[in-house]
Amino acid sequence: MLALLEPISGWYKFVLVLHILSVIFGLGTVALNGIYAAQAQKRPGPPGRAVTEANFFVSTVAEYIIYTIPVWGILLVLASHDVIKFSQTWVWLSLLLYIVAIGLSHAIMIPGVKWIIELQKEMEAGPPPSGGPPVQVAELQSIGARLAPTGMALDLLLVVIVILMIVKPGLAHA
Description:
mainly alpha; 7 helices
């Protein structure tokens, strides 16, 4: 299969480099966000919020890089001289899983982290009048309970897409 791609132009190879770099810098940046969340939880108050906000800022930059991944992938298909086709399982399924991942990110992850930052700010405003734990703690735990499995699902989607990119089911049948 790889021999089929050998005669492909320098343009194809250039776009492939951009595609791989966007995956590394985009997805590589957000793949370990759960570790940042765990570190933020270990640091109550402003230090924890600083970790969360820094991670959110870097993840936002990575988000724009992540949006370029399918652009480079589509250009690769177009530059492959019909060796790679959109009808091949690994191409269309990868695009579909990417769309699912973006949907999960925008529906659950991004709003969840924004809300966590707001709750952290509220907690820093002062202790509750009752003297007990801040009411925001339960909400933070609830958000974390939604974000953790979603983060794992996103990681699993990434693994499946990488496997599709390596195995390329449907390439030989095109």
